């Protein structure tokens, strides 16, 4: 049964849709102005941002844009010991948000300029056959897992590790190790890899002219420099970055609460992208494409502007209302409330659904840890 013939997969509480606007102070709503800049990043935001890039059409100033792209040869690093590719027309994309501590990310990520990086956000984006619907599964970075032995993109080998946090796989062996770990956990092959860093995310949101969200409760978090009263806001890049990174300002203060904000933001971002009039403003189109291609790291199969455009063109038909967003089923670790562990039987329902290109059953996410931040932000 195809995704198009099944009911929308999902969990209760779909967000509403509104079109966004330029930067606005907290609590104020502004009329839709012209768009300016930015919108890819940390975790499935990339998929949404790449859709923007695909919507730009032909490769405007192709060679410059092509030179912006950074790639990782995932296939070479992982070799043939991987789950098989699906033959039903579906695709799986691992989207990571990297909080690199180097370069322009230093002041955004904190810490020292030591070049280190972690996976701040991770999402598996499953695009159903027909490319009209998608399911997005967020993986909490604080999940305790058994990381398999992996080889990084430079050929370095890293031994397996037991009971480590999920985001340790990226900091240990980069993109290739993150993909290996996800495939080991899920048994699902990742067809593509997309990564966006802090500074890239912030610039993209600004390029788009901001993203409009509505907060039902106040969010005040000095750690992420976020200060939003209840109401409708058009978030600047800095505010958007604060929103998707805050964990102390909402819910139970866990990574799970932050994931719920990220998922609401992704839907708002997808709605925003649908209303961007790129073809009427060539300079805006180029500025956005220039920022987007400079912000992402992809697998080598997507490592050209033409490949990205073709890939994104296949995603443009997916609206926010046809995106089912869930969190990998977990429960709090009884020995450490700051960590979570996988609910294996429920998680297996999720992975089985993705392997068979079916909707994720509601039973897979019922009764699992949530972070208690759902409904705090809507698009």
Automatic annotation (TrEMBL):
Matching Gene3D superfamilies: LCP protein (3.40.630.190)
Start and end residues of each Cell envelope-related transcriptional attenuator domain: 118-274
Regions of compositional bias (Basic residues) in chain numbering: 20-39
Transmembrane region(s): 39-63
Keywords: Membrane, Transmembrane, Transmembrane helix
Chain segments carrying region Disordered: 1-39, 80-116
Family listed: Belongs to the LytR/CpsA/Psr (LCP) family.
Protein name: LCP family protein
């Amino acid at each position: 049964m195809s995704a198009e013939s099944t009911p929308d997969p999902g969990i209760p509480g779909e967000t509403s849709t509104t079109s966004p606007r330029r930067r606005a102070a907290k609590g104020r709503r502004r009329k839709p102005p012209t768009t300016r800049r930015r919108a890819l990043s940390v975790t499935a935001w990339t998929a949404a941002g790449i859709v923007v890039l695909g919507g730009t059409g032909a490769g405007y100033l192709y060679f410059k844009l092509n030179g912006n792209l950074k790639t990782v040869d995932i296939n070479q690093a992982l070799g043939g010991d991987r789950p098989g590719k699906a033959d039903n027309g579906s695709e799986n994309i691992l989207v990571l948000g990297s909080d690199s501590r180097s370069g322009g990310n230093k002041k955004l990520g904190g810490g020292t300029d030591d070049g280190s990086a972690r996976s701040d956000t991770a999402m598996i984006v499953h695009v159903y056959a027909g490319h009209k619907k998608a399911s997005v599964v967020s993986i909490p970075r604080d999940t305790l897992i058994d990381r398999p032995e992996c080889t990084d993109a430079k050929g370095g080998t890293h031994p397996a590790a037991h009971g480590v946090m999920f985001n340790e796989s990226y900091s240990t062996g980069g993109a290739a190790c993150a993909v290996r770990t996800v495939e080991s956990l899920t048994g699902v092959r990742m067809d593509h890899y997309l990564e966006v860093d802090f500074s890239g995310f912030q610039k993209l949101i600004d390029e788009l002219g901001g993203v409009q969200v509505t907060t039902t409760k106040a969010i005040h978090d000095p750690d992420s420099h976020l200060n939003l009263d209840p109401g409708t806001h058009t978030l600047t890049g800095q505010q958007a970055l604060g929103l998707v990174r805050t964990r102390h300002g909402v819910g139970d203060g866990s990574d799970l609460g932050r994931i719920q904000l990220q998922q609401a933001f992704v839907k708002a971002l997808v709605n925003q992208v649908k209303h961007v009039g790129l073809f009427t403003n060539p300079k805006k189109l180029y500025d956005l494409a220039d920022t987007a291609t400079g912000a992402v790291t992809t697998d080598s199969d997507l490592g050209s502007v033409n490949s990205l455009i073709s890939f994104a063109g296949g995603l443009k038909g997916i609206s926010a209302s046809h995106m089912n967003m869930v969190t990998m089923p977990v429960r709090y670790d009884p020995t450490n409330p700051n960590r979570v562990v996988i609910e294996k039987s429920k998680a297996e329902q999720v992975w089985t659904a993705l392997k068979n290109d079916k909707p994720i059953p509601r039973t897979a996410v019922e009764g699992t840890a949530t972070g208690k931040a759902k409904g705090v932000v809507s698009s």
